[in-house]
Amino acid sequence: MRTIVTRLIRHKSSVPQTRFVSASSTGGRYLSTDSNKIDEPFNVEEAETVHVPPPLTEKLLVLGGNGFVGSHVCKEALDRGLSVSSLSRSGRSSLQEPWATRVTWHQGNLLSSDLLKDALDGVTSVISCVGGFGSNSYMYKINGTANINAIRAASEKGVKRFVYISAADFGLAKYLLSGYYEGKRAAETELLTRFAYGGIILRPGFIYGTRSVGNMKIPLGVFGSPMEMVLQQAKPLNQLPLVGPLFTPPVNVESVAKVAVRAATDPVFPPGIVDVHGIQRYSQQKSR
């Protein structure tokens, strides 16, 4: 980084200098002007370019950075000029893309607090994309306990902001996937408690985009994008009892990544819960 620094040089002028003079006869003081003394005002003579240390770079830790959403978050953060690291159970991403070589990959389990604390060294913000499906007990552990451990460790390390990719409530689905939603909501509660001023929860519905599975690329946007356009216009249906949440529009994974990175780095981004409509709105705004 190069900064222009202006060097100021004094030049003489005929401006008189004002000073205090003691008045012995009255014991007081009065102002007098001594025309033999001159002030030396600043005049610019030259500018010099000097090297100064660059500002501290924001360091972002992405939990689950090698997954579908997490990989897009990593790429978005790198495009924004951030220093990016990731912690996941499998470690380095299998994606053979140039951006992946610029991420510092950590392998570890969020249920192990020691590994997590090492990965948090020097981190200023965290985005968690960790989640999964399975039995109810497993879903609670991976969606709830793992994220709660991360939130607590980040708080103890002095991390400024924490963004959690949660999930929209799909009504009847929360009864069928009780462990999933109970875990998500437990993590949300912990986040809003620990990060009252820097905790942001994103609640997207179905997330579409190009998903890489091995050497295959699955274009989920083929039906996800048209559905988003239609359901955006059906927002009132979202308020219907029981079935309303089924009308929650899908959202592009790039939009989720963009909003997540902005929320993690923009100090004026408001804390709290951002639903799918908020994600769509923020993604259309220009980044600061």
UniProtKB/TrEMBL annotation:
Family matches, as Pfam families: NAD_binding_10
Q: Name one GO biological process term.
A: ubiquinone biosynthetic process
The NAD(P)-binding domain covers 64-207
What molecular function terms (GO) are annotated for this protein? Answer: protein-containing complex binding
Listed Gene3D superfamilies: NAD(P)-binding Rossmann-like Domain
For this record, the Gene Ontology CC terms, alphabetical, are: mitochondrion
Q: PANTHER family this protein is in?
A: MIOREX COMPLEX COMPONENT 2 (PTHR12126:SF16), NADH-UBIQUINONE OXIDOREDUCTASE 39 KDA SUBUNIT-RELATED (PTHR12126)
Annotated protein name in UniProt: NAD(P)-binding domain-containing protein
